[in-house]
Amino acid sequence: QVQLVQSGAEVKKPGASVKVSCKASGYTFTSYGISWVRQAPGQGLEWMGWISAYNGNTNYAQKLQGRVTMTTDTSTSTAYMELRSLRSDDTAVYYCAREGPPGRFDYWGQGTLVTVSS
Amino acid sequence: QTVVTQEPSLTVSPGGTVTLTCASSTGAVTSGYYPNWFQQKPGQAPRALIYSTSNKHSWTPARFSGSLLGGKAALTLSGVQPEDEAEYYCLLYYGGARVFGGGTKLTVL
Prior knowledge:
The complex is a heterodimer of chains A (118) and B (109). Chain A has 118 residues and is mainly β. Chain A is 0% helix and 54% strand. Chain A has no helices and eleven strands. Chain B is mostly beta strands and 109 residues long. Chain B has no helices and eleven strands. Chain B starts with a strand and ends with a strand. The relative contact order of chain B is 0.33.
């Protein structure tokens, strides 16, 4: 069965970086992309970006350009999302989600809480 | 800045029918926006319900259906169950970018 298992909760200070992982299993990793989505406390979902696990191509949300990097490691079927220069409003639950073409979101990770606090 | 708009809240009686909509600030929503719909309950990850306007996942209950209606994407729940009380989000594709709507809180009362 398809599973996306994310890394554990993180607490970071403002200005630091965080790297969240998303380990995929149960399917051919390189046949799909991964989107990253975050949700601030009590707020809605925000799409952060997408990476192709096939060739590493990325699309990032405009507001995060320059602060976010998404990568994959095909040898371990793991996707990563790194967010730099953290601010308090980056406090959120971060999710990875599998995307197949065209326009098909299906499986989601369990979420990773990132707290940014001094 | 592209904005995707959903009804903030809706209330439906058990067994009733309700339609949630998803509008784009750029104009009419078409199949080329690949509308997706998600359900989220408190403390849980979102769950995908509909992709590419009207396609259901294997786990999507038959009472959920997706369509295009009056220039918007729509999610219709027929024969609503108490467990359908949740937040519902749509997502639209804009070329390489994806944008979520603000969500609709559905109350079953």
